[in-house]
Automatic annotation (TrEMBL):
Organism domain of life: Eukaryota
The protein, known as: GH10 domain-containing protein
Gene Ontology BP term (one): polysaccharide catabolic process
Cited Pfam families: CBM_4_9, Glyco_hydro_10
PANTHER family per the UniProt record, alphabetical: EXOGLUCANASE_XYLANASE-LIKE ISOFORM X1, GLYCOSYL HYDROLASE
Positions of the GH10 domain: 203-499
Lineage of the species this protein comes from: Eukaryota, Viridiplantae, Streptophyta, Embryophyta, Tracheophyta
Length: 557
């Protein structure tokens, strides 16, 4: 719906509205979030973030005997006082170990009458300092708590820590920081100038602006149930500009029997995608989990398996060249290793090289779970994922993106942001590829946590796209549905609609000021603008993108 300003003199006020957020930011007296992160091991640690925040003291070291009674180890810990309910705590510290070349170290929060929880992890080394970043959300008030450190594999290791920081944020402060990033990273100022054919600026020209497409990819998985399903298709197209096939491109779907290729479902789904100009990810070429590998692969010799792998790549890349913006080359490689066991430790590296050779324009991803959701999974810590990426790139793999599945139960927002900060140091696009909330929670709680995760992803400057794992089928959804089977919104669907509306500029109408100009602040994407003055009018389009400061757009009538 278009809205008209109440009077002509309000054009000047648009400029005031443009800077309202700046004024609010200047009056904000809370902490600004520090996105700093480090992946290299340093001879000297950096200073603590936020000047240490509220941690206020050095760690104390407790003495404990080693498991084999060979000596005494020193374990660091921090005592926290007055942990406040609803507060989000950002935690960071530099870690060094002795008596081992390398070890995965986790920081654990211990609170009375609650289960100990991991709040951050780091791959530490001997002789240099490694940066651990994480945090926690306090669900209830506590007089005291303890953060302690231990090896994830229960080895007896001397651990040293320094430059620790604990910075609390209220929920309002955390939301302010999110909105600050959205306004600076997802929007730009636009000034439209209207003139006559002689170049004279026209005051009082009517300007109608409408955002007709969004730049940020926000979408959902779809399943074969969308084929020929007009209500499903209309519901999807109204909301999303991106999609991913839930199962229909996986190897066990396209070649259930050796040599019998069947792309019928994928082709029909792709017809829907093309007809509606929707961006689509390719998921996936290979999946390391033996449960989801075609049965006929299991008994192949290494030579025959290699031939099958090469045929799989050639088949997909030749058939779907330029159709999919991404390919998840090897899915869940941090957790499973079917192909490495069969083809050798460089199997994933060779996958990337072969895929890139078959289609040099394809954008290639690793994709895995329990990376951003938790730090309890020792197989998929942020540092292990980064190490895997660096190994592949050093080996010559062309890797263009990081896929974080994002299957959450109760999200730890401080940990989510800290992990994204660490990945951001690689300079690669980050996508949340399979976002959902566990069905162990009721619909209202799913919606609450979904909003938290989506705001966290959209506000982080290094996240380039978000995909929901909410494909609809007659039997329901994987974990979380946005609608019922009649496409009536469930609470999670209401959240998606609310955020889509909030993250789009929409349509509006106003008039040029005495300088013949009209200004607004808009989200990245494509816009249609109509200028009218007397009997003259002009309609055109322009794009707003990240690589601009203020967009100046000239219209001549």
């Amino acid at each position: 719906m278009k809205t008209r300003s109440m009077n002509n003199s309000s054009s000047f006020c648009i400029l005031v509205l443009l800077f309202t957020w700046i004024c609010l930011a200047s009056s904000y007296d809370g902490p600004l979030y520090d996105f700093s992160a480090y992946t290299e091991c340093k001879l000297q640690p950096e200073d603590p973030l936020y000047g240490g925040g509220v941690i206020g003291e050095e760690a104390f070291y407790s003495r404990r005997p080693t498991g084999d009674d060979s000596g005494i180890l020193f374990s660091p810990a921090f005592v926290l006082h007055n942990v406040t309910q609803g507060t989000i705590y950002s935690f960071s510290v530099w870690v060094k170990i002795d008596a081992a070349e390398a070890a995965s170290i986790k920081a654990t929060l211990m609170i009375e009458n609650t289960k100990d929880s991991c709040i951050g992890s780091v791959s530490a080394k001997r002789g240099c300092w490694s940066f651990l970043k994480g945090g926690f959300v306090s669900r209830s008030p506590h007089n005291s708590a303890v953060i302690y450190f231990e090896s994830t594999d229960a080895r007896d290791i001397d651990i040293q820590v320094t430059s620790a920081s604990l910075q609390p944020f209220t929920e309002e402060q955390w939301r302010f920081n999110q909105q600050y990033q959205i306004n600076t990273e997802r929007k730009r100022a636009v000034t439209i100038h209207v003139s006559d054919k002689q170049g004279s600026r026209l005051q009082g020209a009517t300007i109608s602006v409408e955002q007709i497409s969004r730049d940020f990819p926000f979408g959902s998985a779809i399943a074969k149930s969308i084929i020929g399903n007009t209500p499903y298709q209309k519901w999807f197209v109204k909301r999303f500009n991106a999609a991913v096939f839930e199962n229909e491109l996986k190897w066990n779907a396209t070649e259930a029997k050796q040599g019998q290729l069947n792309y019928t479902l994928a082709d029909e789904m792709l017809e829907f995608i093309r007809a509606n100009q929707i961006t689509v990810r390719g998921h996936n070429i290979f999946w390391e989990d033996p449960k989801y590998i075609p049965n006929w692969l299991h008994n192949l010799t290494a030579s025959d398996l290699q031939s099958a792998v090469n045929s799989r790549i050639q088949s997909l890349m030749s058939k779907y060249r330029n159709d999919f913006i991404h390919w998840d080359v090897n899915n869940e490689n941090l957790h499973y290793d079917f192909y490495e066991k069969k083809l050798g430790p460089n199997a994933t590296l060779e996958f990337f090289k072969t895929v890139h050779g078959s289609d040099p324009l394809a954008t290639l991803f690793l994709n895995d779970y329990n990376v951003v959701e938790t730090c309890n999974d020792v197989n998929s810590t942020v540092d292990k994922f980064i190490t895997k990426i660096n190994e592949l790139r050093r080996g010559g793999a062309i890797m263009d993106g990081i896929g974080l599945e994002s299957h959450f139960t109760v999200p730890n927002l401080a940990l989510v942001r800290a992990i994204l900060d660490k990945f951001a140091t690689l300079g690669l696009p980050i996508w949340l590829t399979e976002v959902d909330i566990s069905n162990t929670l009721d619909h209202e709680t799913q919606a609450l946590y979904l909003e938290q995760v989506l705001r966290e992803g959209f506000s982080h400057p290094s996240v380039n796209g978000i995909m929901l794992w909410t494909a609809i089928s007659p039997k329901g959804c994987y974990q979380m549905c946005l609608t019922d089977n009649s496409f009536n919104n469930l609470p999670a669907g209401d959240i998606v609609d609310k955020l889509l509306s909030e993250w789009q500029t929409g349509a509006f109408e106003n008039q040029t000021n005495e300088h013949g100009s009209y200004s607004f602040y808009g989200f990245f994407g494509d816009y249609k603008v109509t200028a009218q003055y007397g009997n003259s009018s002009s309609t055109s389009t322009f794009s707003l993108s990240r690589n601009e400061e203020t967009k100046h757009y000239n219209i001549q009538l």
